[in-house]
Amino acid sequence: MHSIFVKTDKIGIFRSIKCTDMEVTFGKKLRECREAKSFSQAELARLLGVHHTIIGRYERDDVKPSIDVVKKIANTLETTVGYLLGENQDTNVLKDPAMLKRLSEITAFPEYDREHILYTIDGLIKSVKFKNIAAL
Question: Options 3.40.50.150, 1.10.260.40, 1.20.1280.290, 3.40.50.11540; which CATH number does 23-94 get?
Answer without folding.
Answer: 1.10.260.40
